[in-house]
Specification:
By secondary structure, the protein is mainly alpha-helical. It is built from 13 helices and 5 strands. It folds into 2 domains: about 210 residues, Rossmann fold; about 80 residues, Tyrosyl-Transfer RNA Synthetase, CATH 1.10.240. About 55% of the residues lie in helices and about 5% in strands. It has a 3-stranded parallel sheet. The relative contact order is 0.14. It binds adenosine-5'-triphosphate and L-tryptophanamide.
């Protein structure tokens, strides 16, 4: 008997340059899982416009994100890498799922509440965001969704929506599981270790972007918020969040054990910690930045890769959306 390969789906918004939180929380896992499972990685431009975007910037960031993902190790031969708006089934699936999801389920989403607070005028799409995400995931019969901690609630909502649809119309969707790594699931802002590092926070020193120069990385880490305690060790205590965050970044980029890292820093001060983290981050990002610059210089090649990805994605999503439409009672268009 052949065992069916697991399907993995994840998405990322072209809402600005990636930071090490995206890399450590999500992309590293996507790269590690390539080969053994069937992988789909989607650049979610429909999600990006749930908050205002400048059209030229969105277009540029979409290609930049594709280049960066490939530079970071996503191999288009092994992973279907595509742009969400290239596959219409995502918007169509979102509409159908809108019509089986109670409004109250959306109003309690943490990400919605946090993002809505930051907007002068909240767009309807922002509330609907998690349903579009559910459509993304469910159209591919996804088993696993590797994401950072902040997305757990959206994947749980996706499970609820899948079960509700299956209950109303009969078995249609696979109920997916979130996959969240223990360390790195929540990389904190360097200038405020109580907040998660976020793409759409542009304050200087907030994040390390994957294409930052070594000088910029040094600048941000030098000013990273720590505490007045002085000792260096992993800790869950809120007062130690800054030091813990630096240690986690060190851990994930070096792959060393926590015990070895703590032993390495015994008797050292925060200046040494920041210096060592800087060195490790600069060296880990250097090859990614170099590959990124090469790829970004060839937009035609990127568009070609994305066109192949879109065709592969459509081959899965289109039959699924037809199945969904048939289940709800639509007359399917012929041919
Ligand atoms: P935005 O600030 O524009 O909402 P973002 O930085 O949260 O963007 P997304 O595109 O929403 O980035 O997320 C891409 C992936 O990166 C998701 O799997 C998300 O869980 C993960 N991620 C985002 N921020 C962090 C973080 N600080 N630590 C770990 N993982 C993160
Ligand atoms: N909301 C996600 C991005 C996203 C996603 C998805 C993640 C859109 N569709 C499907 C996993 C699966 C975020 O990272 N902010």
């Amino acid at each position: 008997m052949t065992v069916k390969q697991k399907r993995v789906f994840s998405g990322i918004q072209p809402s600005g340059m990636l930071h090490i939180g995206n890399y450590l929380g999500a992309i590293q896992q996507w790269v590690a899982g390539q080969g053994e499972k069937v992988n789909f990685i989607c650049i979610v431009d429909l999600h990006a416009i749930t908050v205002p975007q400048e059209p030229a910037a969105l277009r540029r960031q979409t290609r930049e994100l594709a280049a960066l993902l490939i530079a970071a190790g996503i191999d288009p031969q092994q992973t279907t890498l595509f742009v969400q708006s290239h596959v219409r089934a995502h918007a169509e699936g979102c509409w159908v799922l809108n019509c089986v999801t109670p409004l109250g389920w959306l109003e309690r989403m943490t990400q919605y509440k946090l993002k809505a607070q930051k907007q002068e005028s909240v767009l309807t799409g922002l509330l609907d965001y998690p349903i579009l995400q559910a459509a993304d995931i469910l159209l591919y019969d996804t088993d696993e969704v590797p994401v950072g901690e902040d997305q757990k609630q959206h994947v749980e909502l996706t499970r609820d929506i899948a079960q509700r649809f299956n209950g109303l119309y009969g078995e249609t969707f696979v109920v997916p599981k979130p996959v969240i790594r223990e360390s790195g699931a929540r990389v904190m802002a360097l200038n405020d270790p109580t907040a998660k590092m976020s793409k759409s926070d542009f304050s200087r020193g907030h994040a390390i972007r994957i294409n930052d120069s070594p000088d910029e990385i040094r600048w941000a880490l030098k000013r990273a918020v720590t505490d007045a305690i002085g000792s260096i060790g992993f800790s869950d205590e809120p007062a130690r969040a800054g030091v813990n965050n630096l240690l986690q970044i060190y851990e994930l980029f070096t792959g060393q054990s926590r015990a070895a890292i703590e032993a390495h820093f015994v008797g050292k001060g925060y200046g040494a910690l920041k210096g060592d983290v800087t060195e490790v981050v600069v060296e880990a990002l250097r090859p990614i930045r170099e590959r990124y610059e090469q790829l970004n210089a060839d937009p035609d090649e990127l568009d070609r890769i994305l066109a192949i990805g879109a065709a592969q994605a459509r081959a899965v999503a289109e039959p699924k959306i037809r199945e969904v439409m048939a289940k709800v009672g639509f007359v399917l268009p012929t041919a």
